[in-house]
Design a protein that fits this description.
Distance between the termini: 43 Å
Strand content: under 5%
Oligomer: single chain
Largest sheet: none
Number of strands: 0
Radius of gyration: 19 Å
Number of domains: 1
Order of helices and strands: HHHHHHHHHH
Amino acid sequence: MEESELCVAEAARSGSPAQMLVATRLMSHPEAYRRWESEHFQLMRRVSGHRYLNGQVVALRSTALALLHRKAVFEYLQDRQLTRSQRHRLMALFHSMREYTASLIAEHGNYVRGSSSYWCSHHLARGLMKDGVFAEPLHLYEERYTDYFRVFCDVELAETEAEREAVEPMRLLQPLLKLQLAEARREILKMPYQPQKVWHEVEIRRPTGDTARLPALGSRNPSKK
């Protein structure tokens, strides 16, 4: 916990602009900070409860994956310029029988606390455990999960016939994206604790002079939002 608290404080001082904003917001609200401390303590307790380092490493990987999922809804809200109706429908997808404003506040809290714990997991894994999975393999998983979640929400929130036609190819790809995501999770969790080893797909996806990054799946034309 001490390392995690130092990590949040450091993010508030000299992190990326997004990290500084989130960490400062967390630290400036004592009640929110106490809730984060309590939740993070439970997460780290499950990790430290394993007797051997290998078990702790796998538990920390699993925790990081769960934290990625936890902050996804608010990140989608930040990424997409949604209509009022779409924002309400998005909250209804993940908060049944809850009022919109309360749901939005809850998701913002999940994002702030989840992001903070995610950075701390990275700090512990990379700085103390030297787990190479928290470098490119986890980054690749995060990209894949973002693509899948974006497609899922875009398909669910399509309102007009034109929007539904635009996302239809992505809807057909959903089962494949979900399968690839599950495969990526299995690979990360079963990867031996050998920091010099990297997931094979990471190697083949390394950028070269002949490669270029493709547009994100599910992206829309901003003019049509």
